[in-house]
Write a structure and sequence with these properties.
Blueprint: E1 4-9, H1 16-30, E2 34-40, H2 44-51, E3 57-59, H3 62-67, H4 69-78, E4 83-86, H5 92-101, E5 106-111, H6 122-129, E6 133-136, H7 139-148, E7 156-158, H8 174-183, E8 191-196, H9 205-218, E9 224-229, H10 240-252, E10 259-263, H11 268-274, E11 277-280, H12 289-296, E12 300-304, E13 318-321, H13 326-337, H14 340-357, H15 360-371
Parallel strand pairs: 1-2, 1-4, 2-3, 4-5, 5-6, 6-7, 8-9, 8-11, 9-10, 11-12, 12-13
Helix pairs in contact: 1-2, 5-6, 9-13
């Protein structure tokens, strides 16, 4: 078959879902596939695809994409593209229509968000009925998918996300690392406790701030500094009212000198080198990409004991705490902040786990095996 795939992501947002197509494009190319894209005009998705080396087909809106069906079908035919991969549930309408009009197309869908309500009405039965394979990015999301989608279990596959561990290997000299720490406002001997992610309520920054206050009160002899990494504006994907509330709470708790709002950063792999502990207190992560990125960097990670994060972290490579229990987070942070050797051992174990189970190479290998599968192997 033709080793070509079109990734469809008609979104103006910018999160893990939107970043996914451009993240896997280099590895798709390396493994012999030719990626194409369909995105909204002027979106960050379109820009990211261009940065990854492809020129996406663009449409002004989701609605206009339906009006451009003839143009899209002509593009698919001209480029001999026989595989479509959708990343937003709202894009499945387009994908299902395209595969209906051109039955030889194989249609794939990744549930990046973790479905929360049943989708078994006639429309969804038709749309998902066109899907060759639905990918769940964790076992937690697969269980939700089995309950929510009108698909047999054989058509739903857990496929963990992956990363290139080499990107997260330490590169900074000791002088560059210290300079980065100073840029982040870190005192010379302070244990750096970071929380990367969009600043929105579901990511748990509010509980983390409360935990830092408990840490300051309960372990006054520990030297530490908190770093919030994430955009501070709506344009950077964050909730501006929430950011303002976080700043006010940090001030009210007397933590202004111990917490840095670092803003949106493109150099997260290098920022990990400046951190000693990475926290991910999200309440219900569908996977936890930040978790495996921090693990690949050899960091001691504390993650929420909910959603998919417990599939990634165990007692040998990190710590888990309830996202609703700031006291548990304070205790976990105190344990790790007080023991550099423990942090090192956990980080080394975490790095080994990523190399074994969560590489981008393995993820894309499994993906293209599905793309190239026998078209008749699944009942529609």
């Amino acid at each position: 078959m033709s080793h070509k795939v079109m990734h469809i992501c008609l979104s103006h947002g910018w999160g893990g879902l939107e970043m996914y197509p451009s993240r896997i494009i280099p590895e798709l190319k390396r493994q012999g596939w030719e990626p194409h894209g369909l995105a909204l005009s002027g979106s960050r998705v379109a820009a990211s695809l261009e940065e990854a080396g492809i020129t996406p087909l663009q449409v002004p809106t989701q609605g206009r994409a339906l009006l451009a069906m003839a143009r899209i079908l002509a593009y698919l035919k001209a480029n001999d593209i026989r595989v479509l991969h959708c990343h937003k549930s709202s894009d499945l309408r387009l994908g299902a229509l395209l595969s209906t009009l051109r039955p030889e197309l194989r249609l794939f869908f990744t549930d990046h968000m973790g479905v929360t309500r049943p989708k078994k009405d006639p429309y969804h039965r038709w749309a998902y009925g066109r899907v060759t394979r639905l990918f769940a990015i964790s076992e937690a999301t697969r269980q939700r998918n089995l309950a929510a989608f009108p698909l047999p279990a054989a058509r739903i596959r857990r496929l963990y996300l992956g990363i290139d561990p080499a990107v997260y290997a330490p590169r900074l000299s000791s002088e560059a690392r210290e300079a980065l720490r100073r840029e982040l406002g870190l005192p010379e001997r302070a244990v750096a406790i970071g929380l990367p992610g969009r600043l929105t309520p579901g990511k748990g920054q509010a509980a983390w701030v409360e935990a830092l206050a408990l840490l300051a009160d309960g372990w006054p002899d520990l030297a530490w500094h908190g770093v919030l990494i994430g955009g501070l504006t709506a344009g950077e994907g964050s909730n501006e009212d929430y950011v303002a509330a976080l700043r006010e709470r940090v001030a009210a708790l007397g933590l202004e000198g111990r917490v840095t709002f670092a803003g949106f950063r493109r150099d997260l792999p290098r920022l990990f080198e400046a951190l000693d502990i990475v926290c991910v207190p999200s309440r219900n992560e569908a996977f936890g990409l930040t978790v495996i990125e921090a693990m690949a960097a050899g960091k001691a990670v504390i993650g929420a004991d909910s959603g998919a994060i417990p599939e990634l972290i165990d007692v040998d490579n990190g710590r888990l705490a309830s996202p609703e229990a700031p006291d548990a987070w304070a205790g976990a942070m105190a344990e790790l902040a007080a023991d550099e050797g423990l942090r090192r051992r956990l980080g080394e174990s975490a790095r080994r786990r990523i190399r074994k189970d969560f590489t981008l190479e393995a993820h894309v290998t499994a993906l293209i095996e599905e793309y190239a599968g026998n078209e008749g192997e699944l009942e529609r």
